[in-house]
Structures are given as structure tokens and as C-alpha cells.
Amino acid sequence: MVFSDADAAALYDLLNPWDPDTRPDDGFYFPLVMGAESVLDVGCGTGAMLRLARERGHRGRLVGLDPDAAALDRARRRADIEWVLGTAAESESGVGFRLATMTGHAFQSLLTDHDVRASLGAIHGALRPGGRFVFETRHPQARAWEGWTHTNPDDVVDVVDETGRALRYWHDVESVDGDVVTITGTVAQPDGTVLRVLREGLRFLDIAALNGILAEAGFEVEAQFGDWNREPVTGASREIITIARRG
Ligand SMILES: C[S@@+](CC[C@H](N)C(=O)[O-])C[C@H]1O[C@@H](n2cnc3c(N)ncnc32)[C@H](O)[C@@H]1O
């Protein structure tokens, strides 16, 4: 049985339904999007956030940017939004967006200082002065990757996909190299027959390094939270959620 890139994008939507009414992270972002005249969603994936914004009446400019062609193909099912194939570092400058977002921990896909700098520089250039860049990254202190293993029953999920196939999905950590954790996502049949192994690197920047690099790129940190209820970042926080303003 073939498990294509399109199947992987469909599985992503199944495992991560975007719902601001029930999911606190989506509920954090959605009012910011609905309240901004123009929005650039960097690392938009299948575009669920912008698609719902349009469906719920957003009338301004909405642009989704992502380097994953199969994810973007799913996004393109909604044609009244601009979908652009590309990386954060390729964000178009001079557009004057009011808001840029990176949701679903997409920021952690930026694996090197060089890539973070290039991406922040491009996002800065895409915003108008005073525009905001809002994103989250998992706080390294919570060591989230330790739960990403097939031995953690909470991390093994059984689903039935759009075509009626029963699938099992789980994560494993392949390596931890400094602050970059490489993980695999295994797609299998319920009997364990492996269909596809998806691999990605995730960077866990600490808050001091993050704020340093934001300042260097010309962003002021307007607010920073440790969870989706807008509590401050503490020694127990699992997230670093940042609202940064282009100076
Ligand atoms: C976990 S998904 C999040 C998707 C979506 N934002 C969400 O909240 O569901 C991470 C996304 O980041 C994208 N990505 C990876 N590297 C990127 C880069 N350099 N610039 C922009 N997006 C990137 C991936 O293609 C993927 O769609």
C-alpha cells in the first residue's frame, strides 16, 4: 500500500483538526487573525487557520506560505486565499502585513541561527511598521521530546483516514544534537506493518537566545506567555508564546 505525500497531508489534518472553539492554541490565534486587516501565515501547512478565517467572514488579505507542496495542495481547495510555495526566509518584502503568524510550532523547523535570522529578517520585511509577528516554540525545559516514543501509549494514535483505511501513527526520537531534536513519525497499519516514516528536525531555542535573535532582527517583544491562558513564562512552562512587534 502506497502512502503518498498527499496522504501525509491528509493525515496531518486528521490528527490536528484546527478548532478555535475547543483547542486553546487555536483559540489564542484566531481572534488575532480575525482582528487583523492582512495576515501572512508562515508555515501554514494545509492552511486550516486561514481557511476558517475566510469561512467565518475575514474580508482582508490572507496569504499562506509553506514549502510543502502536498500540504499547500490541500490548502488550495480554498481559492479565495493566496497560497505561496516557499520558506519563511522567502517571505516577500514590502507587502505591509499587519500580522504574521507561525502556528503549530512551525518556528521550530528553523534549525540553524542562519535560518532563524534569514526567516525573521524576511518576516520583518513583510510586516508594516508596528505589525506583529506571533508564534510559539516549545520551552526546552519541558523536554517534550521525552514523551515522543512508541512506548508512550498517549503517543500512539489509531485513526481511520479519509479513504477508510485504518492507520496507526506514533513518534520516536532519532537523535538529540545540541538543541535540535530529530524525530520520526511512523505511519503503519494496525498490525504494525510500516507504510511510511516521516522525519523532521525541531529546534528548542531557549528564551534568552530567542529574545536576543528577535531583537537583532528588529522586533520588540510586546508579550510572552508560558501557556495558552496567557500566564507568564515560569520555570515550569511548556511553551514560549511570543507577540513581537516590528519596530
Ligand atoms: C507542524 S506543521 C504546522 C502547520 C500549521 N501552521 C498548523 O498550525 O497546523 C509545520 C509546518 O512548517 C513548515 N515548514 C518547515 N520548514 C519551514 C520553513 N523554513 N519556512 C516555513 N515553513 C516551514 C512545514 O512544511 C509544515 O507545514
Structural account:
The chain is of the alpha/beta class and 247 residues long. It folds into two domains: 5-140 and 204-246, Vaccinia Virus protein VP39 (Rossmann fold), CATH 3.40.50.150; 141-203. Helix content is 25%, strand content 34%. The strands form two sheets. The protein has a seven-stranded mixed sheet with strand order 3-2-1-4-5-11-10, sandwiched between helices. Helix 5 links the parallel strand 4 (97-102) and strand 5. It starts with a helix and ends with a strand. The mean pLDDT is 97. The structure holds S-adenosylmethionine.
Write the layout of secondary structure elements.
Blueprint: H1 5-15, H2 24-34, E1 38-42, H3 48-55, E2 61-66, H4 69-75, E3 82-85, E4 97-102, H5 113-126, E5 127-138, E6 157-160, E7 166-177, E8 180-188, E9 194-203, H6 207-216, E10 219-225, E11 239-246
Helix pairs in contact: 1-4
The site of S-adenosylmethionine has 17 residues, from loops.
Helix content: 10-25%
Specify the CATH architecture of the largest domain.
3-Layer(aba) Sandwich
Query: What is the CATH domain class of the largest domain?
Result: Alpha Beta
Structural class of the secondary elements? alpha/beta
Strand content is 25-35%
Envelope shape: globular
Overall strand count: 11
Order of helices and strands: HHEHEHEEHEEEEEHEE
Radius of gyration: 18 Å
How many DSSP helices? 6
Number of domains: 2
List keywords for this structure.
Rossmann fold; 2 domains; alpha/beta; binds S-adenosylmethionine; 247 residues; single chain; seven-stranded mixed beta sheet; four-stranded antiparallel beta sheet
